[in-house]
């Protein structure tokens, strides 16, 4: 099952960060990079424990959407193509500043639920962060179909995860409960957009903030809630 927000780690010198995000969220990849830079700048970076949680921006999407990202966003947000292209250019530029090469022209629009289930499997096998990175890159940089089970299994295989076991479990509907539990938890907390970061079970940071915002928050929370214990 997913971790419960607010649980204190056994070692009082650890700092727990729960991150709610969707693998089909462009700002989530940018936020991941900025958060990682913030952790690197934090004096006690080795004491940070990250827990990924599932979230879906659009649960209504079919497994495979017959159209481009621009067409999908235009329809979903009620914007004209020129406005959408401007949005995509902006986020592509923001991603490039973090060393990411977004390719919206070749992006395959797909429902992220199956990918989030695969991520849950990876989390339970000690490869959550690596799988999160692969899924985001596959979706935004490589033009891979993250709604396709075979593609997801190939990604899992690149991390030496058991693709036979994973394939059978995905087919049987495994990890649906865990993903739904994360989504329900986000709703209960009042999260309406991602990425969303929760430090030490108490302090929330919304959005892909600059790296120094994360570094400063980690330093403050560590001083207040961990170092003094």
Give a description of the structure.
The protein is of the alpha+beta class and about 230 residues long. The protein has nine helices and four strands. The protein has helices at about 25-40, 70-75, 80-95, 115-125, 130-140, 150-155, 165-170, 175-190, 210-225, and strands at about 15-20, 50-55, 195-200, 205. A four-stranded mixed β-sheet has the order 2-1-3-4. A hairpin with a 3-residue loop joins strand 3 (about 195-200) and strand 4 (about 205). Helix 4 packs antiparallel against helix 5 and helix 4 (about 115-125) packs parallel to helix 6 (about 150-155). The chain starts with 14 loop residues before the first strand and ends with a helix. Residues about 1-10 have low confidence and may be disordered.
What is the general shape? globular
The number of E-state strands comes to 4
In whole angstroms, how far apart are the ends? 29 Å
Global mean pLDDT: 92
In percent, how much strand structure appears in the residues?
A: 5-15%
Q: What's the SSE pattern?
A: EHEHHHHHHHEEH
The number of helices is: 9
Structure classification: alpha+beta
Helix content: 40-55%
Main sheet: strands, sense, barrel:
4 strands, mixed
Strands in their spatial order, largest beta sheet: 2-1-3-4
Low-confidence runs of at least 5 consecutive residues: 1-11
Radius of gyration: 18 Å
């Amino acid at each position: 099952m997913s971790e419960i927000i607010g649980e204190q780690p056994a070692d009082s010198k650890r700092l727990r960060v729960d991150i709610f995000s969707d693998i089909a969220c462009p700002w989530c990849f940018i936020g991941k990079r900025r958060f990682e830079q913030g952790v690197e700048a934090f004096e006690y970076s080795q004491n940070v424990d990250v827990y990924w949680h599932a979230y879906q921006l659009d649960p209504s999407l079919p497994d495979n959407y017959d159209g481009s990202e621009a067409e999908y966003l235009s329809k979903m947000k009620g914007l004209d193509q020129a406005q959408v292209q401007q949005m995509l250019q902006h986020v592509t530029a923001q991603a490039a500043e973090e060393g990411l090469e977004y390719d919206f022209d070749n992006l395959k629009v797909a429902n992220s639920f199956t990918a989030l289930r695969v991520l849950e499997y990876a989390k339970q096998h000690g490869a959550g962060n690596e799988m999160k990175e692969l899924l985001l890159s596959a979706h935004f940089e490589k033009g891979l179909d993250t709604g396709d089970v075979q593609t997801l299994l190939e990604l899992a295989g690149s991390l030496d995860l058991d693709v036979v076991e994973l394939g059978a479990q995905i087919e049987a509907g495994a990890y649906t409960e865990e993903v739904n539990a994360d989504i329900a938890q986000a709703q209960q907390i009042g999260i309406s957009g991602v990425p969303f970061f929760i430090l030490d079970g108490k302090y929330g940071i919304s959005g892909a903030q600059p790296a120094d915002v994360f570094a400063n928050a980690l330093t403050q929370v560590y001083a207040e809630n961990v170092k003094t214990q």
